[in-house]
Amino acid sequence: MPKSFTSIIHLDTVDSTNSYLKRETHPAGTVVYTFNQTAGRGRHERKWLTFADKNLALSLLFVPEEPISNTSWHVAALSLALLNVLKGCKVQGARLKWPNDIFVGDKKLSGVLAEVTRQGKSQRIIAGIGVNVNATEEDLSEAGQPATSILTESGKAIELNRFTGLYLKELAKWTRLLESSRGVAIIKREWLKHCPILGRTIRWDSPQGLVEGKVVRVDDEGYLIIESEGREHCIVSGDVTMV
Ligand code: BT5
Question: pTM of the predicted model, to two decimals?
Answer without folding.
Answer: 0.95
